[in-house]
Amino acid sequence: MNNQRPDRDAAPVVGLQVREGVFQAFQIIVGHPLRSFLLIVGVAIGVATLLAIITIVSGLSGRIRDDIVSANRPYIWIARYEGLGGEDIEEKLRRPQFEPELISYVAAADGVEMVDYNVSNSSGTVLHYGDERSHFVQVVGTAEAFFYMYSFTVGEGRFFTREEISARAKVCVLGYGPREDLFPRIDPIGKTLRIYGQAYRIIGAMEKRGSIIGQLGDNYAVVPWTSFERDFLHEGVEDRTLAASVVPGFDTGEVISNITGQLRQGRRLRPGQPNDFDVIASQTYGDVIDSVTGGIALVLVVLSSIGLMVGGIGVMNIMLISVTERTREIGVRMAVGARRQAVLFQVLVEAGTLTGIGGVLGIGLGYLLSWAATGVLRFPFQFSPATTIGAALFSVAIGVFFGLYPANRAARLDPIEALQRD
Predict the structure, then answer these.
(1) Is 113 helix (H, G, I), strand (E, B) or coil?
(2) 8 Å CB contact between 246 and 76
(3) Least confident of 171-180, 254-263, 278-287
(4) Band of the pLDDT at 17, cuts 50, 70, 90?
(5) Does the residue 192 lie in any domain?
(6) Which member of 129, 141, 261, 350 lies 3.0 to 4.6 Å from 225 by CB, making a disulfide possible if both were Cys?
(7) Is the domain of 315 the same as that of 223?
(8) What is the C-alpha to C-alpha distance for residues 207 and 218, in angstroms, rounded to an integer?
(9) Average pLDDT of the chain?
(10) 215 and 108, same structural domain?
(11) Do β-strands 220-224 and 239-246 pair in parallel, antiparallel, or remain unpaired?
C-alpha cells in the first residue's frame, strides 16, 4: 500500500513544479522586458520562417500538381515514353506511333470511362485576325473528351462534337490567351482565322486556367484530331498519345493493367515480348512533383532553422543569467529539501515557456505571412493542424534543449555555497 503513495503524489508535485516554472518564466519577462522581448522575437521569427516555408512550398507543390496533372479526376496517360526521367528517350522515340485504330482497344478496356486521342507536332505558330496577332501558340488535335478529361472549362461557345471529328470539320476552340490577343473587345464565336494557312471557324473559347507559368499555360488552340491529321502533320515532327479517364470506383492500377492488355493485343505483341509503349497514372506525375518540392522544402527548412539555433543560444544565455541571479534562492530551496531533479525540471520549464511563447507568436506570424504570399503568388493556402502542433512543440523543444546546460548547472549548485552568495 505504501509503495503506491509516491505514484499518487507524483502528479500534483509535477503540476506544482510546472506552475512554478511557468510563473518564474513570466517573472523573467516582467523583470527583464527588453532581454525577454528579444529572445521571444528571435524564436518567433525562426518559427514563422519555418512555418511560412512549409506552407508556401506545399502550396507551390499543389499548384504545380494542378497545372501538370490538369484534372479533377484520375486519368491514365498512354504514350511512347513516360517522361519521368531515367529513360532512353532516343530509343523510345523509335517506338511506333499510336494509330487511330488503337482508340477502340483502349475504350474496350474494363474500367475506362472516356478516351482522348491527341495529335500534335513540334511546331507552334502565331495566329492572326485582322490587325491583331496572338502570342506563340501550340495547336493540338484532340477528341471530344479533351476538355472534360483535363477539367478545362469552355467559357464561350462550345467544344466540337464527335460528328465534327468524323466529318473532319475545320472548327477550332481557342485557349484564353489567343482569345484575348485576337478578340479583346468582340465576340470570337463564328469568326474565321487561319491556322498554318488553313481557314478554321471558331466555335468556342476556354476560360482562363491561371497557370503557374502565367499566360503560357493558356496559349493554345485545339481542333478535331482528324482535321489536324489532314492539315497540320506536315508542319513538324508528329506525336500521337492517348488518355483514358477511370470509371469512378475502379482501381487505377487495375485499369492500367486492363489497358496494357488491350494495347498488347492491338499491337499484336507476342507473350514475352516487351511493351512498345508506356502507360502511367496521372497521380504518378503528382507524386513526382511532391517528391521534388519536398526535397526543396527540406533544404530550405534546414537552412532557415539556423535562425532558431540563434534563438536557442539566446535562451541559454538568459537562463544562465537567471540562474546566476537566483543562486541564493536555489540554495534556499535545496537546503529545505528540494531535489536536484526538481531544480533541473523547473529551469527547463522556464526555458520551454519562454520559447513556447515565441513559438505561438511565430505560428500566427508564419500563417499570416504565408497567407499573404500564397495570395500574391496565387498558390493554394493550406492550414495544417499537424504542422501547427509540430511548430509549437519544436519551439518548446528548442528551449528545453538549450536550457539543459543552465538547468544542469543550477541543479549541481552546492546549497551551502549558494547560501553564502549575495
Answers:
(1) strand
(2) yes
(3) 278-287
(4) low
(5) yes
(6) 141
(7) no
(8) 9
(9) 81
(10) yes
(11) unpaired
Last residue of a domain, one of 227, 246, 276: 276
The cell numbers describing 397, all together, are 523543444
User: Does residue 89 belong to any structural domain of this protein?
Assistant: no
Residue 104 and residue 232 in one domain: yes
Domain boundary among 250, 276, 302: 276
Q: What is the C-alpha separation between 39 and 172, in angstroms, rounded? A: 63
What string of DSSP letters covers 262-291? HHHHHHTPPTTPPPSSEEEEHHHHHHHHHH
Q: Helix or strand or coil: residue 246?
A: strand
Q: What percent of the chain has pLDDT over 70?
A: 81
- Domain enclosing residue 302, as ranges: 15-66+289-420
Closest C-alpha among 37, 42, 38, 44 to residue 367: 44
* H or E stretch covering 257: helix 252-267
Which letter does DSSP use for residue 85 in this model? S
* Residue 208 counted as domain residue: yes
How far are the Cα atoms of 199, 263, 266 from residue 76, in angstroms, in the given order?
33, 13, 18
Asked if 205 and 271 sit in the same domain, the reply is yes
170 and 311 in a common domain: no
What is the model's pLDDT at position 214? Answer: 44
Number of domains present in the structure of the chain = 2
In Å, what is the CA distance from 186 to each residue of 127, 157, 194, 207, 370? 16, 13, 18, 16, 39
Low-confidence winner among 2-16, 244-258, 358-372 (lowest mean pLDDT): 2-16
Q: Give the Cα separation of 311 and 307 in Å (integer).
A: 6
Amino acid at 8: R
